[in-house]
Design goal:
about 550 residues; mainly alpha; 20 helices; about 0% strand; globular
């Protein structure tokens, strides 16, 4: 190499070093900023701090167990089994960093758009935000567990070095995957409706894969479980999410050629994520947040259909809410999901033979439909003051609020009974189905008329995601939910028992099930509406005060 060539190489190296140093110049500031943000979480109310402390202790305990298991795996003679478990578990964790922000969205405290006016260069901002993302609970736990794998594969000096490099690559890949997914979610899920729809799709996907999960839970893991995990590991080791975890594992197992190729895949995946992250940062710095589309509606909607009475106006408003507010319709979407999960579990373990499963979905759906309004007043927020200051009677308010669920529940019972009878094969069971479901619906609505006025608890605010739970929710939510479900089941028990006797003993019990359900349901609905109306008249100011405190 000539003198001129050496000078050019030295100058290029000097510039490259200056560029790297400049890119990392703001990393300490971003780390301090993230520490301040984490410390701010402990400046909340005492009970929220207690919850954070308990969650932190739980996370520490889980980390200790995982690290202990990874260290203990160092002394397991069956390297192939340890290899399979580490590859599969690591791939699942890295994939979770990528998918969870896309499915449920996150509140990104280090959104690049928040730094657009500070004059920070693109490279500095990309490096600083990526470094700051390491200071999060999931990333810290992952980093500790990844470093514990160094001990797992410490079967020699060079293998230990390779395990350390792979652990760094795996952690960086996971953190960058989370950053890229969060940035993409910032664009795709920037509007409330998009976040709600994506959350619903995510839950439906969970339901769709539930048969696979339940099938795996039915596998004899003692006999064939490790072989199944090994099959998954052989597939996942070639993926960008699993390659870094597989490098030291395959090296320890004697697959040196495969490990070299996996290392190339891991480095390429990390480089691709870094380039994607830099491009996203550059784009977000010049792109404002996307505003949600404003829908326009013509006519009066339900207000032009319902009677011009106090209960009619309340019913029209409730029908509008149940149709447009995601906090309502998401719960409706989840109602048919519950029996799918239950029946799938029963089918996997063969718990219910024959055509008997056809009798379960309708009562389960109606049970949760009647229960869905147990905290209805809380969804109004401070808007409940309109009912209080307008002098709306409690009876009118209670009647109006149950109309939407009656509009849904009665057709559901009629259609669901016909479908259930068709698959069950005996028309006589329709009497019991009608009795049980009418009782569950009416008792649920009557009880909800009482609980929603007597013990409302905080819910997501209007405009928030329906999956976002208020941090002020305490034990009262669990008590109200459990109590209301239990009371519905207890009061519906006579009709349910008579229906079961009709199926297994004598069909003449179906008639008793029908009448028991109709009588108990009618009394429960009437008593609940009247009692709830009286409570509403007496506790209007208290309900308004609770709504203001929860706002």
């Amino acid at each position: 190499m000539t003198v001129l060539g050496r000078k050019q190489a030295a100058e290029l190296a000097h510039r490259l070093g200056d560029g790297v140093a400049d890119a990392f110049a703001d990393v300490p500031r971003f780390l301090r900023l993230k520490l301040v943000l984490l410390g701010g979480a402990f400046r909340r109310s005492p009970w929220q701090v207690v919850g954070l402390v308990l969650a932190s202790l739980y996370g520490i305990g889980m980390t200790v167990l995982l690290v202990g298991g990874l260290i203990a795996a160092r002394f397991v003679p069956d390297v192939e089994s340890v290899r399979a478990i580490v590859i599969v578990a690591g791939t699942v964790v890295t994939t979770g960093f990528l998918l969870l922000p896309l499915v449920f969205g996150v509140d990104d405290t280090l959104d690049p758009r928040k730094f657009a006016l500070f004059g920070i260069t693109r490279n500095r901002l990309a490096v600083g935000l990526a470094a700051g993302s390491i200071l999060s609970v999931p990333a810290i736990v992952l980093a500790i567990c990844a470093l514990a794998t160094v001990v797992t594969w410490s079967h020699g000096f060079w293998l230990t070095v390779l395990a350390f490099i792979s652990a760094v690559i795996a952690t960086a890949t996971s953190v960058l995957a989370g950053r890229v997914a969060t940035a993409v979610a910032g664009f795709l899920l920037d509007t409330r409706r998009a976040r709600e729809l994506t959350g619903v799709i995510g839950i439906l996907l969970v339901v769709l894969i539930s048969p696979l999960v339940l099938s795996l839970s039915n596998v004899g893991w003692g006999a064939q479980g490790l072989s199944i995990v090994g099959v998954f590991a052989d597939i996942l080791r070639w993926s960008p999410m699993g390659a870094a975890w597989a490098v030291p594992a395959d090296t320890a197992a004697g697959h040196g050629g495969a490990a070299a190729l996996e290392l190339l895949i891991a480095v390429a995946a990390l480089a691709g994520l870094w380039l994607a992250w830099r491009a996203l940062v550059a784009h977000m710095l010049i792109t404002p947040s996307r505003a949600g589309e404003v829908k326009t509606y013509s006519g009066l909607g339900w207000f032009g259909v319902m009677p011009a009475t106090a209960w009619g106006v309340v019913a029209a408003r409730s029908l509008t809410y149940w149709g447009r507010d995601a906090r309502y319709w998401v719960s409706l979407i989840m109602i048919p999901v519950i029996p799918v999960i239950i029946l799938t579990a029963f089918a996997v373990v063969h718990a219910i033979p024959g055509t008997y499963p056809a009798l379960l979905p309708l009562p389960i759906m109606v049970l949760f439909l009647g229960w869905a309004a147990h905290n209805d007043v809380a969804f109004d927020g401070t808007a409940v003051w309109l009912h209080v200051v307008a002098g709306t009677t409690g009876l009118a308010d209670r009647v109006g609020r149950i109309v939407p669920l009656l509009f849904i529940g009665i057709p559901l019972i009629v259609i669901g009974t016909a479908v259930s009878v068709y698959f069950y094969g005996d028309a006589h069971v329709a009497l019991a189905l009608v009795g049980v479901t009418v009782c569950e619906l009416f008792v649920g609505l009557g009880l909800s008329s009482v609980t929603s006025t007597l013990a409302p608890y905080p819910v997501p605010k209007p405009g928030d995601s329906p999956f976002q739970q208020p941090q002020s929710v305490g034990a009262i939510a669990a008590v109200v939910q459990g109590f209301s479900l239990t009371v519905i089941l207890v009061l519906s028990a006579p009709s349910i028992v008579f229906g079961v006797l009709g199926v297994f003993v004598d069909p003449s019990w179906f008639t008793a099930s029908l009448w028991a359900g109709l009588v108990v349901g009618a009394l429960g609905l009437a008593g609940g509406v009247v009692g709830g109306g009286a409570i509403f008249n007496r506790r209007g100011p208290q309900m308004l005060d609770a709504a203001v405190k929860a706002a």
